[in-house]
Design brief:
The chain has 96 residues and is mostly helical. It has a domain of 55 residues. InterPro entries: Oprl.
Amino acid sequence: MRKSLRWVAIVSVMLWLGMGLVGCATSSQVKDLQTKTEKAQSTADKALMEAEKAKADAAKASAVANDAAEKADKAAAQAEECSVKCEKMFKKGMMK
């Protein structure tokens, strides 16, 4: 009984030490991971800035397009009005 208990204790300690050594990260691994994390954060920040700029540019382009559409609608209305006037003038000239 005592021998088997001793054997179990030795095996348990060896397993515990083995897992402790395998699970530990070296300082160079931690630094490498930190560098990769900082690079990823930098890339994400740059992408966010570019996305915000693109959003602002899109808003400006939308405003310009809306203004152009409004002007086109006004021009179409004026053209229609002119067409009606010209038609009336033509008919009046044909009546004489």
